[in-house]
């Protein structure tokens, strides 16, 4: 053990640092001191603040000291490093090998991920390296083996990187449980968390604490470095009223790319990525190497782009949040954010990708795609100047994740229910877990937990005695290990060119909405959908064709609460409009004259007629997800009130609903009353596809149904059961089953933004201002332009579709089912009603 | 409207929204692919699915029998998810099934999942001829006018207002009629899949099971209809 109680480093380390003209940053020294005190520590530092060295330095010192003391104990796993990205473990390993080699330290460092060959993995368990770099899933796997106790017994330190990206997610929940287990096996293990700047450092400390407490974790904060040079791109041509692609500004973006050495162009959605990439290449007279990176592209293609980026062979890459995390590219000197940033914390992390050194100023440009987005970009600038961050505090952990963890524990060694309950409550996401929920979850793992017995002989856990459980058979452990992890891929289909090459993957529902002959942009080119073969969508190149814009909503980011609040405040205060471009100011002034610019506490609702329909526009500024849910609930309510709603469209700022009959001014307060979150919501939720998708995820994670492994679809069809059918049956016969409870909790926390909607409805009670207008107001124009242009495949459409289907069929067939039908008349009419959600 | 009559093989038949077929002239009710005890079979393999599938399936069957009061009931095979299924059926459900069987002619047609007869009574046959119809588990490869079968679990989809609606369905080319699966845990196979295309003619009609009624639609109205006709390859029937 390294024993000098100061930051005076041993000679070898001093020589190495001074040879490079480096010295330790204060936060790196603080990390060394914390290690000397044997304290758990959370380091919050901006991207590129030397976090990796700060995290590993104490372990290197300790191991170097060990080697000097020549105890020759090199088979002992000393430090475990966990990162959310495989690529990051490889990168960190590479960065660490350099000081180890250059200082000639006798330290073995290795990575272990799903890609590690079998033989090496076996050897790592028998004879572990001193430093092991791995992922949360690989840790869960290691913990499930019978030799976990031996392997981890002498572990001294666990480092969790990119902690902010894990806390509050299911992967984070699983990791927290794994760490609690680890602490039982290795009580002397010290925890180190590395995180980007976050709004909730205290919650992060609690998460990191082995007692879920927080005050036992030292908090180290790195300096922020020079402030980033952030600006809003002011396109000389007029700012569009609506749209998200910012095509009008791309010539200027291209100019900036030409001036910079290397640029990352961040976008918010995959659709934006495709369009922006295509447009940039249209402008690319200099033939600069510009690449595309998003989560739907084939993995090999993404790896190629990342390698080209690391090798300095690219001038620009257009990327979604798939590039938000991790790997260090010091050469990036410009970050462009297309479209409004949606959240300040994310924007700061993205900007941090430029410069990537504490002593260098980042260059960043925001490119608003429409007028509302310009307001949002201004709000983001103000928030950054005020040092304000956003993000939600982590919610309690899910029972489905707990179920997976409990089975893993029982695979490793016999466990006692009482001890396990105490242990899981030392993981912060489960600190408040009631014993009854724990018992129900354990009963589910044991033999399904159903009120109707009958599965006793299929139990997965055997009770030894005195509340001791272990996995019932090696087969149970094998199934567990094959289905480990909390990432449940959306059901996707491969997109393959008819000529053979795989372009990537896209959500099944997107392909299902296409007819043969439809064109869409994918992987940077326009392709025509031809047919579905097995689980692959066959496409051909459609050169010169105009694409039907990709409607897949993948990766759409919600507007953060604090940014929404700033936009509302800025809007209400004309003295703050001065920084806005002239046409945006003019637009707001016109709104003052024609209608009203609402105060931050008010909800403005405008009512007007247009094209024979009654419109109602609510300016709630709560983000698209919230407005989407509000739209579903509001239309149900209007239906009952006899207003015959025809459809709605939701943006981040506004909800517009149109109906046959107008709502009366006096009815508006009732329409927006909080009680819409009661029965209507229950009904809609349990029927909606959101719940079915959520149930599928919960069921896979909990180990109720088998994970779909790529390539197995065909052989497994005969045994897999559609999770929607299971959901329907379980809901009918055992509505309070632990997995349905987990499903409801998960849907409520993740998908529907219900808490935020409830808060909004409460906030505006008594503060709704209704304006009846003779015509559309300036502020309403953007949302009306969205109608008919955006086709959003969202939640809550199932029952609407059923109505529409019946309408169509009734119109198409005249009557129902008159004869044996080959002579059915061609369907010719469009449905009378068009709903969009 | 849960029952919709149409003519098949010059005889009136009725497709029910439950997925059952009624042959009024013969006083018969036909159901396919109940796959009873699929849940417990899965549990045996380590996946503890809710054990309520037999209860749900039999409740739907009891409902259909109450409604139509048939003199005879024919189950078109794969009535149990495997040969042991009958013995795993719990007492409550076994009693319920026996009550349904009592006082009517009951025929189990052998399926590929349950080639052996269950020890529950009723007749067990490979195929059955009643009136003008031949009833068997899987469509035969040769010409077969008036054949009623199951096995394929057909489903189909329509796109309405940009959205896709997919459901189980009856499918018929005028000579053959294939029933949807009746079981609570039985998924479906798209009507345009190669396996179904191999036994059903190009011109066919589906009867899509909606929430409360059955919708008849010609093949060309369905999603996935080969407008740009990818080559159809005949494949042997898949094991479902």
Which key features would you list for this structure?
heterodimer, A: 837 residues, alpha/beta, 32 helices, globular, disordered N terminus, disordered C terminus, B: 240 residues, 9-stranded mixed β-sheet, 16 strands
Proportion in helices of chain B: 10-25%
Largest sheet of chain B: 9 strands, mixed
Gyration radius of chain B (Cα, Å) is 17 Å
Distance between the termini of chain A: 62 Å
What's the tally of helices of chain A?
32
Classification by helices and strands of chain B: alpha/beta
Structure description:
The complex is a heterodimer of chains A (837) and B (240). By secondary structure, chain A is an alpha/beta fold. In chain A, strands 3-4-2-5-6-1-7 form a seven-stranded parallel sheet, sandwiched between helices. Chain A has a six-stranded parallel sheet with strand order 8-13-12-9-11-10, sandwiched between helices. In chain A, strands 18-17-21-20-19 form a five-stranded mixed sheet. Helices cover 41% and strands 15% of the residues of chain A. Chain B has five helices and 16 strands. In chain B, strands 8, 9, 10, 11, 12, 13, 14, 15 and 16 form a nine-stranded mixed sheet that branches. Mean pLDDT of chain B is 88; it is low at 227-240.
Which helices and strands appear, and what pairs or packs with what?
The complex is a heterodimer of chains A (837) and B (240).
Chain A: H1 11-19, H2 26-36, E1 40-44, H3 51-68, E2 79-82, H4 86-102, E3 109-112, H5 118-126, E4 131-134, H6 136-143, H7 148-152, E5 157-160, H8 163-166, H9 170-185, E6 190-195, H10 201-208, E7 217-221, E8 229-232, H11 250-259, E9 263-266, H12 270-283, E10 290-293, H13 299-310, E11 316-319, E12 334-338, H14 344-351, E13 363-367, H15 371-385, H16 399-412, E14 415-416, H17 417-424, H18 435-447, E15 461-463, E16 468-471, H19 474-482, E17 492-497, E18 502-507, H20 508-512, E19 519-522, E20 525-533, E21 536-541, H21 561-572, H22 582-594, E22 603-610, E23 613-619, H23 624-640, E24 645-650, E25 655-659, H24 668-671, H25 679-687, H26 689-702, H27 713-716, H28 723-733, H29 738-751, H30 754-764, E26 768-772, H31 781-786, H32 798-813
Helix pairs in contact in A: 2-3, 3-4, 6-9, 9-16, 15-21, 16-18, 16-19, 16-26, 26-29
Chain B: E1 3-8, E2 11-16, E3 21-23, E4 28-31, H1 38-44, H2 53-68, E5 72-75, H3 85-88, H4 91-101, E6 105-109, E7 123-125, E8 127-130, E9 133-136, E10 147-149, E11 154-160, E12 163-172, E13 176-178, E14 189-190, H5 194-197, E15 205-209, E16 214-218
Parallel strand pairs in B: 4-5, 5-6, 6-7, 9-10, 10-13, 11-14
Antiparallel strand pairs in B: 1-2, 2-3, 3-4, 8-9, 11-12, 12-13, 12-15, 15-16
